[in-house]
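Um, can you check?
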Amino acid sequence: MILAVRANKSSFRTVRFKPGLNLIFAERTKESTCKDSRNGLGKSTVFEIAHFCLGGRATKGKGIVRDNLADWVFSVDLQFGDKVLTLTRSVAEPRKIQLHEAGASAESGVNIGAAPDEINWRLGRLAFGLTEHEESVNYAPTFRSLFSYLVRRGSEAYLSPFFHHRQQQAWDQQVNVAYHLDINWEDAREAKLLGEDGKLVKALKQASKSSTFASRVGTQGELEVERVRLATMIEIEQRRLGEFRVHEDYRAIEVRANELTEAIHGLSNANQQDRRFLDLYQQQMSEEAQDRLGPAQVADVYAELGFALPDRVRQRLDQVEVFHAAVVQNRRSFLEDEIDRLKNEVGRRETEIDKLDAERAVQMQVLRTHGALDEYQELQARLTESRTRLGDIEARIARLRELTDASSQLTIRRRQMEQRARLRFDELIAQRDRAISLFNGNTEALYEAPGNLIIDVGPSGFRFNVEIERADSEGVNNMKIFCFDLMLSQLWATRQTRLGFLMHDSTLFDPVDERQVASALLLAKNEAEKLGFQYICAMNSDAYPRDELPDDFAVDEHVAVLLTDTTDDGMLLGRRF
């Protein structure tokens, strides 16, 4: 239970709470003018301080975290069984909360300063029985969310029984309401995890339909063809690599073989040219051997024509014959010498060619049976690249298979989850029936007709709803929240660990008919006294249903603090802010 709300300033109106019903009253006095208002007196500030000291988010400029309150320090006193705790938090230094637990002696007490998260987990264990399991997993109940159902803060907290904030996630609502109702919150958590997987599958499906993804990944059939081709290539490259023999002088041998080839080609070209000269010279020798016309034959030719050659002409022909014979002999000697020289040169080159060719054959045999080190390394690199590409292809195929199977697997998992959740849901019929019975009883106390608390399980987790006749009225909608929150406190009152108090701001009762307000106050008072918890509500004095309450309802006995609008002293902080 909550014992007190305090501050470090003497102007602050310390609020002390008792068991049962506690009213935070804002009253308009006779001296106030029409310009005075009860807004800003501090009714809602009590709720802000409770959240602030119990680990709520401290956002600058919101609630009590304001520059003009920078030197303020607030405290809340709580009692859990025989433990009395004081939680103190400074507006100027909100990142640390001081927790003091009174003990039998000063030495046995606990006094620590810790971050809000650490304080929240300590409070979660004391107020709601949260364990290390809830602390260690995602999408689990938290003290802050559970607390916000029993101490609703701000107008957005009064829009729905199942949400305490407009931006609260659906999974957070399901998990924490299920924990409040004791109907296995982990089923709601599993639904959230499946929802996350579903979003991932949906995103992958959308991506797979895009041209960019398709061109990069390809179809499974195309990838299978590429996989087989790469596997065959790798097998061939592995075999080549296994048969490869490295020769240290491979490159030198390769250079020598090229030099020998060039030398052989040069000798062959020279022989080819010399053979052409041999053919030419031998042809000329043959022509020189043919019969030719001498001086006697010339004289016979002239005689047949009836002419006689003079002696002088005959003498000159003989001289020419002798000269010509000498020329022919000289030419013949030259041709014979050249022919012999060319034959010798061609023969010598042939011998050189045979020698070089034999050496080249040895070099080529080495080149055929060995390889260079850089070739071996290049072959290794190609094999590594092929293996990498094959691994990438296989990974793409696996992703496509996973994508193909993911949707059907997700559907199966959702059905299995729903079956397990419904089975456990049926096993928890006593808890479910008690919650429904309490809610129905609360609505019947207000409207003389039972309402309906609907709890169901579906593919997306738990589904909650409440129904009350005349639910189109704004006041009736607010009373749904009242009946639901009171039901939560009734449930917690029977458990070993509990927060021990329920707080409602005046926002809840503003649109409600006076008769229902009176019925709600009576019901909350009776249930709080019977079950041993506190019901704390803020209320404007003119909304207090005096005429609808019984005469023995002593309002003064239940007023924890009376705030007025006459002077600053009547405000909670002793000042406006």
